[in-house]
Every structure is written in structure tokens, then in C-alpha cells.
């Protein structure tokens, strides 16, 4: 492999490494955010159900 | 019906699998597959250029399939999935044009050749899908926008076989013909390199699709939580 070819190979590797590192990091971050939103929804649901229960008038 | 969809493979696992597959592809392409006898080292771009092109076609096909599901089954998840698939297709389309131009400059001495039907038809396909976003964002969110976008995505996919077959129908041509009716014009490690790179790029595209979809769904869920 000539010096020019080595540079081209390095350029390919660096570009893919940056893209893939970004994908792995963003995937981990999204999974964490999904867990947090699930938790928020779980907390919000009983509160909303309680509110509904309070507003019901019997009789 | 829920807007979210449960997937069997978690996103981080997909991302790591993409990382491994692309690394293996790079090793085979640059350190195992031999240089082409005519084009030399520059031919290595072929493995990525063709894989990216087929991936762009696949993304447009998925976008059309999801659009079809929206129109047929009124699946509430299909609109966002169709949009994300088309978006990924356009991103990969940009990469096809960039890698193709680099290869053309090295092989033919020109960045672009207007007389080549294959190139022009791909550009038409790409611009058609760019206009998809103009249409989509010119209509307010709702069933009307979903229907317009779905019909447009379905029409666009007709251009995919036209673009793909143009290279076989148009003569004389400069664009190399690698896959013919008699098989691939590649042998040994060159064919192995392509057969490894193609699924790796598809896997990367699927991972990016899931990343974008997951981000957009999180955004929707947070908006609903804020309104609740």
C-alpha cells in the first residue's frame, strides 16, 4: 500500500469510526431517555386516575 | 392504538452489531480484497458506493411499504415510520451522489456526466424524494398530511426500478455494470468484500432508522406528557 492509499484507508476508517461512535452513544442515550419517559408515564397515570376519581359525583 | 412499537432487538445491541459488521467490512475491503487490475485502489469505493445505493433504494421501498400500510390498514405508526424511512433514503442518496462523483472524477475525469442516464435518473429519484419533505411540511399535521405523504411515497418508489434498470437499458454507457443476468462480474475476495459490506451498510441504515424513530417517538410522548 502506498502512502496515499494509506491516507485514503485511514480517512474511511476515521469517518466510519466517528459515525459508529455517534450511533452507539446516541442509542445508549435514547434507551436511557425511554426508561425515564416510561417512569414519568407510570407516575403520571395513577395521578390522573386519582383526579378522575375525585371528580365523580355520586347521587 | 399505541404510537410506539416494541422491537425484539434493543437499540444499543443493534448499534454494537453495526460497529462490528462495518469494522469487519473495512478490514476485508482494505486489507484482504485485492486491488482491481484496471482501476487499482480507487475501485475500493465500489463496495461502499453500491452498498449505499442499494440501501437508499431499500429505504425508499420501506417508506413506500409503510405508506401502503397507512393507506390500507390505517396503522397509526406507519406515517412516522414511512417518513423516517424516506428521510434515511435521502441521506443515503446524498452519500450515493458524493461517492459516485468521487469515483467518477477518478475513473472518467469528470465529477458528473449529464449524458449518463443512470446518473441523471438517480438524481431525478433523489430530487423527487427531496420534494417529499416540501410537500409534507407544507400541510398541517393530521390525516390529510399523512395521506398526501403516503401517496407521494408510493408514487416515488416506481422510480426505483427505473433508476436501477437504466444502467442495463442505456447504451453506450460509462457506468460499470457489475451485476448481470449471468452473475456478478466479481470473483473471490472482491465478491466476499461486497457480500459482507452490503448487509453491514443495510444494518447501519436500519440502526439509524431505529435511532431516528426512537427520538421522534420520545418527542411525541414527552409532548403528550406535557399536555397531560
Low-confidence region ranges of chain A: none
Sketch the topology of chain B as an H/E string, one letter per element: HHHHHHEEH
> What oligomeric assembly is this protein in?
heterodimer
If helices are DSSP runs of H or I spanning 4 or more residues, what is the number of helices of chain A?
Answer: 1
What distance separates the N and C termini of chain A? 89 Å
**Strand pairing plus helix content of chain A: what structural class?**
mainly alpha
What's the story with the biggest beta sheet of chain A?
Answer: none
What's the shape of chain B? Answer: globular
User: Total number of helical segments of chain B?
Assistant: 7
Give the key terms.
heterodimer; A: 59 residues; mainly alpha; 1 helix; B: mainly alpha; 73% helix
Q: Care to describe what's here?
A:
- The complex is a heterodimer of chains A (59) and B (228).
- Chain A has 59 residues and is mostly helical.
- Chain A has one helix and no strands.
- In chain A, 7% of the residues are buried.
- Chain B has helices at 11-32, 45-73, 78-108, 117-136, 143-156, 159-169, 188-227, and strands at 179-180, 183-184.
- The radius of gyration of chain B is 19 Å and the shape is globular.
- The two termini of chain B are 18 Å apart.
- Chain A binds chain B through residues 1-2, 5, 8-9, 12-13, 16, 19-20, 23-24, 26-28, 30-31, 33-34, 37, 40-41, 44, 48, and chain B through 10-12, 14-16, 18-19, 22-23, 26, 30, 41, 44, 48, 204, 207-208, 210-211, 214-215, 218, 221-222, 225, 228.
Q: How do the strands and helices of this protein lay out in sequence?
A:
The complex is a heterodimer of chains A (59) and B (228).
Chain A: H1 3-55
Chain B: H1 11-32, H2 45-73, H3 78-108, H4 117-136, H5 143-156, H6 159-169, E1 179-180, E2 183-184, H7 188-227
Antiparallel strand pairs in B: 1-2
Helix pairs in contact in B: 1-7, 2-3, 2-5, 2-7, 3-4, 3-5, 3-7, 4-5, 4-6
Amino acid at each position: 500500500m502506498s502512502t496515499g492509499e494509506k491516507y485514503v484507508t485511514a480517512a474511511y476508517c476515521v469517518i466510519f469510526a466517528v459515525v459508529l461512535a455517534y450511533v452507539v452513544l446516541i442509542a445508549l442515550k435514547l434507551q436511557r431517555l425511554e426508561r425515564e419517559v416510561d417512569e414519568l408515564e407510570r407516575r403520571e397515570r395513577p395521578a390522573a386516575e386519582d383526579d378522575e376519581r375525585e371528580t365523580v359525583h355520586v347521587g | 392504538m399505541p404510537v410506539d412499537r416494541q422491537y425484539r432487538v434493543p437499540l444499543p445491541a443493534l448499534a454494537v452489531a453495526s460497529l462490528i459488521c462495518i469494522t469487519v467490512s473495512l478490514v476485508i475491503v482494505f486489507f484482504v480484497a485485492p486491488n482491481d487490475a484496471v482501476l487499482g485502489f480507487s475501485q475500493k469505493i465500489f463496495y461502499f458506493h453500491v452498498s449505499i445505493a442499494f440501501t437508499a433504494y431499500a429505504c425508499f421501498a420501506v417508506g413506500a411499504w409503510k405508506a401502503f400500510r397507512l393507506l390500507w390498514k390505517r396503522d397509526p405508526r406507519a406515517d412516522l415510520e414511512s417518513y423516517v424511512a424516506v428521510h434515511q433514503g435521502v441521506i443515503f442518496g446524498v452519500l450515493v451522489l458524493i461517492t459516485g462523483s468521487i469515483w467518477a472524477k477518478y475513473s472518467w475525469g469528470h465529477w458528473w456526466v449529464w449524458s449518463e442516464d443512470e446518473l441523471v435518473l438517480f438524481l431525478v429519484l433523489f430530487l423527487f424524494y427531496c420534494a417529499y419533505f416540501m410537500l409534507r411540511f407544507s400541510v398541517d399535521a393530521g390525516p390529510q398530511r399523512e395521506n398526501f405523504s403516503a401517496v407521494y411515497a408510493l408514487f416515488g418508489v416506481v422510480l426505483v426500478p427505473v433508476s436501477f434498470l437504466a444502467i442495463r437499458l442505456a447504451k453506450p454507457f460509462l457506468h460499470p455494470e457489475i451485476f448481470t443476468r449471468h452473475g456478478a462480474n466479481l470473483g473471490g475476495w472482491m465478491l466476499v468484500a461486497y457480500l459482507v459490506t452490503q448487509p453491514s451498510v443495510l444494518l447501519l441504515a436500519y440502526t439509524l432508522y431505529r435511532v431516528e424513530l426512537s427520538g421522534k417517538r420520545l418527542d411525541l410522548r414527552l409532548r403528550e406528557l406535557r399536555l397531560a
